[in-house]
Structure formats: structure tokens, C-alpha cells
Design goal:
Order of helices and strands: EEEEEEEEEEEEEEEEEHEEEEEEEEE
Number of strands: 26
Distance between the termini: 105 Å
Number of domains: 2
Structural class: mainly beta
Number of helices: 1
CATH superfamily of the largest domain: Glycoside hydrolase, family 65, N-terminal domain
CATH architecture of the largest domain: Distorted Sandwich
Strand order of the largest sheet: 7-8-9-10-19-16-15-12-13
Radius of gyration: 24 Å
CATH topology of the largest domain: Beta-galactosidase, Chain A, domain 5
CATH class of the largest domain: Mainly Beta
Shape: globular
Strand content: over 45%
Largest sheet: 9 strands, antiparallel
């Protein structure tokens, strides 16, 4: 007689809880969930630039659109990634995490910038590698729910002014930057500000940037069909790089800057405020054809000065690196060309002078 013994094996599955890892350069701090890759950005003192920072990472996520399929690191949105390498701090100011949807490998990376003019920014990078000889389509979308200081609906300003309603920009109309103020554009140093720049060191512009309420953008898997003109009550930002045809064994890298902003956007303390610490004279001639001269005067003390020229979509077409100028009269001469010496078309341009965090703008009309 045979006795059949049935042995039931019970396996105990142990799951390792996610941990928050971080990088910090003294100007800006980034925390990331080492399993999901969701992240937060803010000041090292805990002041947030993204909702949830510094203890939670619920205010930002990204989407990879691979061969028409939406994959996301936000639970419940699209299809989940397969984790290939948990998040880790590679160097003092660099961390990354890696996923795979065979044969496409996806990296999410964060860099703190070595350049003095960018040290309050984080460079957010997404990288796709096609580990096969066949072509595949790949695109990216980044969602950010800003919280600047205590305000989850910060004041939104473009180069052309403050905006209080939803906006959707595409291609050449995408603004070169945007500034988010905790309080107002005239706030003092007790309040925070953040800035976003739609490109990174690769200088590859996105295809769509949308500003709308978080309730509309947070679960948007790809289209970003946002209607402009609706009041903002909880500002969110979505940046999309359209899908490209990625050849075999090729890369697709996109980047954007987000953080505390350029030094030229530092906030002047109230005790230093003086509406006449610099002034811009009238450009001459204006309209102009071959060149225009913009006079300005620095008063009171030495100032940290830079300037940009924008087209009406808010894109920087010409800029000058910041420099220290002593008190006195100066002239800026512009020949109607961009940073690459290309002649710009007829139209209205905005000249903005920055001095120790304050700015003033003059309109320039270029004619053929």
C-alpha cells in the first residue's frame, strides 16, 4: 500500500520598501523614490518647488510613449515599467534609475549643475535606448505639480507678463522660460520663487508645454488637449516631447531645467529697493532696420547686470552673460541678429535689462 503525502510549500514573498534618496548642492535639493522614480525638488531648508517635497514624491511623474503604449511611473496611470536598476546616487550631484520595456531601456536622471549661473537648477533627463536592430517609436511627457513655498497655485509669469489662465504652447511658440512666485512678482526675500526652462544642456525643445489645473493634467496620458483661457486654481505643468522613430541601437535624450532660477531672478530685499537704482532710456532709432541703441544707467552702487531680447512668444533670441557694472552710463547696440548671428524677421521684440534681481523692458520694432 502506497501512502501519498502531499506537501504544500508556502513561499513568503518579501518586498523591499522604497526609500527616498537625495542629492543636494547647497542651492537645490532633489529627492527620489528609488523604486518608482517619482521625485520632488526644493531648497535644502525644505522649501518646496514641487508639491510634496521634501517628505513625499507625489507631485511629479513621467510617461514614456513606446510604440503607442503609455508607460508611467505613476501608479494607476498607463502601464507600469519593469524596474531594471533601482535608483541610486551615482555621484554627489547625480542620481538615476533604470527601467525596461523590452527592447527599450529607459533612464530617468537628475543632475545638479556645476555652472555658477545654473546652480539653483536641477537638470531632469529622460533617456531611451533601443537595444535591438528594429525601429521603435519613443516619446516622453513630464508632469510637475508646483508648490512654491506655501502656495500650490503660484503666480505664473512669462517674459510677456503674468498669466492667470490655462495655456497651451506648441513648437516655436513655447516660451523660453517661466517664473513661479510664491506671493507676487514684487515679493521680498521672505517668499520663494521657482523657474522652469523647457530645454536642458542638449538644447532640444519640447513639442508641447501646457499650464492648467492639476485635476486636468495629472491623469493626462498623452494628448494634452488643454483649452486656453480657463482660470487657474491649482497650477500644474506638462511638458511633452513627441514620439520619434528610434532606429536600432540608437538613443533619444530629452532634458528640462527646473529649480530656483537664474541669479538674475534673485529677489531684491525690501530695504534695498529703490525704483531709480537703474534706468533704461528710449531706444533709438525705433523702429530700426540695421541696428538699435538702448541706453541705460546704473546708479547707487555696483550692480549685477544682464539682458535678454525676446520675441513675442517669449523665446530668448539674444542674451548677454551677467557681469558686474559700476555706476555710470552704458549703451547696448543690437544689430537685429540672434545668438547664432542669423538675421531675425520683421516684428516686435522685447529688450529686458536685469540688475540685481530687478528688471525693466523696452519694446523694439525691427523692420526690413
Amino acid at each position: 500500500m502506497f501512502r501519498i503525502v502531499i506537501i504544500t510549500l508556502i513561499f513568503l514573498v518579501l518586498t523591499v520598501p522604497a526609500e527616498l534618496i537625495e542629492i543636494d548642492n547647497g542651492w537645490v535639493k532633489v529627492v527620489m523614490d528609488d523604486v518608482e522614480g517619482r521625485f520632488g525638488i526644493g531648497k535644502p531648508d525644505g522649501t518646496p518647488y514641487i508639491d510634496g517635497f521634501p517628505t513625499e514624491v507625489t507631485g511629479a511623474h513621467f510617461i514614456a510613449h513606446i510604440d503607442g503604449v503609455t508607460l508611467s511611473n505613476r501608479p494607476g496611470l498607463g502601464t507600469s515599467f519593469t524596474l531594471l536598476d533601482t535608483g541610486r546616487v551615482v555621484e554627489d550631484f547625480f542620481m538615476s534609475i533604470q527601467w525596461i520595456r523590452d527592447p527599450i531601456r529607459i533612464w530617468e536622471k537628475f543632475y545638479l549643475m556645476p555652472e555658477e549661473s545654473l546652480d539653483a537648477f536641477c537638470d531632469i533627463e529622460f533617456l531611451a535606448y533601443n537595444d535591438s536592430p528594429d525601429s521603435h517609436s519613443v516619446g516622453f511627457l513630464l508632469y510637475i505639480d508646483p508648490r512654491v513655498g506655501v502656495n500650490d497655485n503660484p503666480v505664473l509669469e512669462f517674459a510677456t507678463g503674468v498669466e492667470t489662465t490655462s495655456q497651451r504652447f506648441t513648437d516655436a511658440d513655447i516660451p523660453a522660460y517661466w517664473t513661479l512666485y510664491e506671493n507676487s512678482i514684487h515679493q521680498d526675500t521672505t517668499f520663494a520663487l521657482a523657474q522652469g526652462v523647457p530645454f536642458g544642456s542638449s538644447m532640444l525643445y519640447p513639442d508641447i508645454v501646457a499650464f492648467a489645473d492639476a485635476s486636468l493634467l495629472e491623469t493626462d496620458e498623452w494628448p494634452l488637449n488643454i483649452l486656453p483661457g480657463f482660470p487657474l486654481s491649482d497650477l500644474a505643468i506638462a511638458i511633452r516631447w513627441n514620439s520619434i522613430n528610434l532606429s536600432g541601437y540608437d538613443w533619444y535624450i530629452v532634458q528640462t531645467y527646473y529649480g530656483g532660477g537664474y541669479p538674475g531672478f534673485g529677489i531684491e530685499e525690501k530695504r534695498d529697493f529703490n525704483p531709480e537704482f537703474f534706468s533704461i532710456g528710449l531706444p533709438r532709432p525705433n523702429p530700426f532696420n540695421s541696428r538699435v541703441t538702448v541706453p541705460f544707467e546704473i546708479m547707487g552702487r555696483e550692480r549685477y547686470v544682464s539682458w535678454n531680447i525676446y520675441n513675442l512668444s517669449g523665446r530668448v533670441v539674444k542674451h548677454a552673460e551677467p557681469e558686474r557694472l559700476v555706476c555710470g552710463d552704458y549703451n547696448i547696440i543690437w544689430d537685429g541678429r540672434d545668438d547664432f548671428a542669423r538675421k531675425l524677421p520683421t516684428g516686435m521684440y522685447l529688450f529686458t535689462l536685469f540688475a540685481d534681481g530687478r528688471r525693466s523692458t523696452r519694446r523694439l520694432l525691427l523692420v526690413e
